[in-house]
Amino acid sequence: MGRIFVVSGPSGCGKSTLCNRLLKEDPQVRFSVSATTRSPREGEENGVHYFFISRGEFEKLIAEDAFYEHAESFGNCYGTLKSYVDELTGQGYDVLLDIDVQGAEQVRAKNSEAVLIFIMPPSLEELKRRLVERHTESAEQLEKRLARAQAEMDRRDMYDHIIVNDDRERSYGELRDTIESYREKNEDSIEETPVQG
Ligand code: 5GP
């Protein structure tokens, strides 16, 4: 069985870049494609970045208990599909969940084996600079994202690992090593099992 790795961090902290590189370089890791009611941004594809669905469809999935967790953020709903994650972990993949703090808390409550990783921007100033550079936010949205970022960072203590994204290579190495350290633990526990016969 694979393991669930939850990766959270304020938008603009560089989390997506780190996750995308890991997904590209480690064939044992797969991305949990969430369902969302928000509209696709430029370059985002349905079924790859998210499953873009209507609010009605989202509510139907909640009623069917189809989510491991779901949360509302900036007026949009996001949810992790049980069927999607279970199929991958069942196939032996480690699954990366790029979800917010509210979602991480729900996953932790349901799955004590899940590993929670928080990505921190080097500073709030740097985060602001990155968000402004991205040009996807209105001034009002930007302010909301910054306030939200601070609130999320205030809750980082519930995570098992905190990675400060101050240097691309170093931070990536830390993320990769963290994930590998859990695989070593799995292998150790297999070795410790006495061989029958
Ligand atoms: P964005 O709209 O920028 O793609 O994502 C906004 C926030 O929603 C990010 O913090 C992201 O981690 C979070 N998010 C994305 N998918 C999910 C999900 O399935 N569940 C939860 N709880 N949060 C999610």
Give the helix/strand layout.
Layout: E1 4-8, H1 15-25, E2 29-31, E3 34-36, E4 50-52, H2 55-63, E5 67-73, E6 76-81, H3 82-90, E7 94-98, H4 101-110, E8 115-120, H5 124-134, H6 139-153, E9 161-164, H7 168-192
Parallel strand pairs: 1-7, 1-8, 2-7, 3-4, 8-9
Antiparallel strand pairs: 3-6, 5-6
Bound molecules: guanosine-5'-monophosphate (5GP).
According to CATH, what is the class? Answer: Alpha Beta
Instruction: List the ligand species.
Output: guanosine-5'-monophosphate
Overall CATH architecture: 3-Layer(aba) Sandwich
Strand content: 15-25%
Mean pLDDT: 91
Main β-sheet, in a few words? 5 strands, parallel
Report the span from N to C terminus: 25 Å
Shape: globular
Tell me the count of domains.
1
Q: Uncertain spans, ≥5 residues at pLDDT below 50? A: none
User: Order of strands in the sheet with the most strands?
Assistant: 2-7-1-8-9
- The number of strands is 9
Oligomerization = single chain
Radius of gyration: 17 Å
Our count of helices gives: 7
Q: What share of the residues lie within helices?
A: 40-55%
CATH H level, superfamily name? P-loop containing nucleotide triphosphate hydrolases
Order of helices and strands: EHEEEHEEHEHEHHEH
- CATH fold title: Rossmann fold
